[in-house]
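R.M. (postdoc): so does anyone remember the format we settled on? I'll just put the structure tokens first.
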């Protein structure tokens, strides 16, 4: 593999709202790791690169197979913060044997990425990380699931504040994923179902004790947890509205609720509920997920670099370590 951590990580969308935060988290975790921020607006990318430090900028054109990158430029990984409907970024990474990380694909859109991997399975590690906030639900859920001998149901909910929609790319992603997919995927009593209408709504208790009506949504979390656990029912519901902190007159936060039920090691049936709140909103949590994933792909945290293959975060990252990283970066976790 032509991977060299001394070559820069190419962050496509690196000058955007979340991409720039991911670059800053990578810089904090790895002060000497070179970064290249790619965007359509070179001047903006250069300004963000200067702010990040140890970074340069390039203009990226996803309409071109070479991404419009200068000849002779070599990278160590390709990280994509925008929806690349050409998949030129993935094909570029495969051609160069570079780890590739994408975070904007809907469950109903996985076909093209998977087909490109199947066509060239030995070319590069492909990390499909289009989970809610890049693993901030799946990895804690797997960590908390260790309390159960037999896990039966996983109910997940997230509150995204209307003031916390991120930049134009994140806004476009959410619009596409909620409007283009007429139904949401969930696991119900051992069977995968695409639901809509009444089946797609669920009332749950928010972190402030107020009842909220969520709409079924299917980020990759339902796929990861369906594969990684024996739970017979898994669903994820989303509220786009006012977060509990903003309702109290404070700045918005991002909220995640994880509810697990099953049989405990002592044979009794039980249910546990965890509330995760980050006062900085969704962007810093997404940025951390991407940074930790890049660190793992490149072998910068003790483990060797990841070999070619098709991956999701839960097979590469340790849930307990990830929960610890979330807390270090400001996530407040409360067992309710």
């Amino acid at each position: 593999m032509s991977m060299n951590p001394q070559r820069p990580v190419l962050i496509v969308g690196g000058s955007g709202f979340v991409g720039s935060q991911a670059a800053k988290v990578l810089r904090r975790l790895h002060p000497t790791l070179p970064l290249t921020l790619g965007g359509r607006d070179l001047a903006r990318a250069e300004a963000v690169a200067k702010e990040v430090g140890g970074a340069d900028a390039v203009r990226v054109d996803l309409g071109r197979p070479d991404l419009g990158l200068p000849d002779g430029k070599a990278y160590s990984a390709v990280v994509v913060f925008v929806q690349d409907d050409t998949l030129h970024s993935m094909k570029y990474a495969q051609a160069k044997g570079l780890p590739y990380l994408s975070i904007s694909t809907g469950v109903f859109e996985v076909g093209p990425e998977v087909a490109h991997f199947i066509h060239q399975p030995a070319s590069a590690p492909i990390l499909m990380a289009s989970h809610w906030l890049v693993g901030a639900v799946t990895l804690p859920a797997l960590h908390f699931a260790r309390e159960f001998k037999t896990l039966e149901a996983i109910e997940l909910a997230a509150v995204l504040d209307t003031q916390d929609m991120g930049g134009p790319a994140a806004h476009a992603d959410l619009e596409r994923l909620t409007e283009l997919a007429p139904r949401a995927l969930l696991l119900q009593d051992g069977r995968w179902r695409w639901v809509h209408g009444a089946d797609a709504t669920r009332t749950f208790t928010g972190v402030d004790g107020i009842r909220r009506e969520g709409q079924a949504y299917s980020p990759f979390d339902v796929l990861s947890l369906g594969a990684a656990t024996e739970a017979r029912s898994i669903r994820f519901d989303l509220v786009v509205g006012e977060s509990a902190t903003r309702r109290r007159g404070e700045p918005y936060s991002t909220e995640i609720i994880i509810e697990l039920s099953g049989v405990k090691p002592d044979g009794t049936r039980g249910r546990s509920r965890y509330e995760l709140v980050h006062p900085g909103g969704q962007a810093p949590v997404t940025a951390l997920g991407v940074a930790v994933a890049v660190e793992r792909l490149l072998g910068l945290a003790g483990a060797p670099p990841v070999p070619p293959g098709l991956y999701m975060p839960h097979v590469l990252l340790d849930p307990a370590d990830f929960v610890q990283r979330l807390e270090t970066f400001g996530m407040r976790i409360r067992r309710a």
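R.M.: ...and that's the designed sequence above, right after the tokens. Also worth knowing: The chain has two domains: 9-132+284-318, 135-280. The mean pLDDT is 95.
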